[in-house]
Amino acid sequence: MIRFEDVIVQIGDFQLTVNMTVPKGFTTVIGQSGAGKSTLLSLLSGHRELTSGKIFVDGTRVDLLPPFQRPCSTIFQEFNLFPHLTISQNLNLVCGKSFFVSDISREKIKRVLEKVGIVELIDRLPSEISGGQQSRAALARVLLQENPILLLDEPFSALGPNQKSELIELVYSLSKEQGITVLLITHDPKDAKQVGGQCIVVKNKKALGPFETSEALKKDGPLKGYL
């Protein structure tokens, strides 16, 4: 469970206020461009400092911790795969901390690549695989980190609708299987509708909710004026 307690972040003229408890499970984050969706995730990951307030994960205060000590993994729109390294070498930087992939690390990498459906691409370079396959490799990398919270800052937005839907479904299935809490930023209400669960709405300088997605998507719900 994630709790934002009287959190305020002030960046120049921009301000975002957050006061909510996010349950375990899959939560989508919806709002217009510039509303503060990425800022919300950055506050949790530690890549953005809050002006005031506190953040807790399962009862432990985390806002005073540096990013590398927080229980979060993030996938951004850019997958940040090293172009000169194979997929196995990229992933080995998580589990082996080096370019040399030991037999033990390779087996661990193969298992996680099987989960995301691209084990046959283990020795390919990022330039040799598609955008959808790169997104699966990025997902495999964060699964290797074994953090309980996964933050998705629109990593699938450049994909076609079918690929995007497949990846969201894959993340949803893995989150259920492994007990991971997921926060997915999206501009598309269809993404929220696909997985159901909870929905956070970011508008008017506030992060609101979470709401049941079915309630948020009603014509008179908190997304009124956005849908």
What do you see in this structure?
With 227 residues, this protein is α/β, with parallel strands linked by helices. The chain has a domain at 81-146. 33% of the residues lie in helices and 26% in strands. Strands 5-4-1-2-10-9-3-8-7-6 form a ten-stranded mixed sheet, sandwiched between helices. A hairpin with a 2-residue loop joins strand 1 and strand 2 (14-22). The radius of gyration is 18 Å and the shape is globular.
Please describe the topology of this protein.
Blueprint: E1 2-11, E2 14-22, E3 26-30, H1 37-45, E4 52-57, E5 60-61, E6 72-75, H2 87-95, H3 103-116, H4 131-145, E7 149-153, H5 161-178, E8 181-186, H6 189-195, E9 198-203, E10 206-212, H7 213-216
Brief summary:
With 227 residues, the protein is of the alpha/beta class. The chain is built from seven helices and ten strands. It has helices at 37-45, 87-95, 103-116, 131-145, 161-178, 189-195, 213-216, and strands at residues 2-11, 14-22, 26-30, 52-57, 60-61, 72-75, 149-153, 181-186, 198-203, 206-212.
Which features characterize this protein?
227 residues; 10 strands; alpha/beta; 10-stranded mixed beta sheet; 26% strand; globular
Counted by DSSP, the helix tally is 7
Fraction in beta strands: 25-35%
What order do the SSEs take from the amino end to the carboxyl end, as H and E?
EEEHEEEHHHEHEHEEH
Q: Compute the gyration radius: what is it?
A: 18 Å
- Summarize model confidence as the mean pLDDT: 93
Percent helix range: 25-40%
**Poorly predicted sequence stretches spanning 5 or more consecutive residues:** none
Q: Termini, distance in Å?
A: 28 Å
Q: What's the number of extended β-strand segments? A: 10
Shape: globular
| Structural category | alpha/beta
Give a short account of the largest sheet: 10 strands, mixed
Strand order of the largest sheet: 5-4-1-2-10-9-3-8-7-6
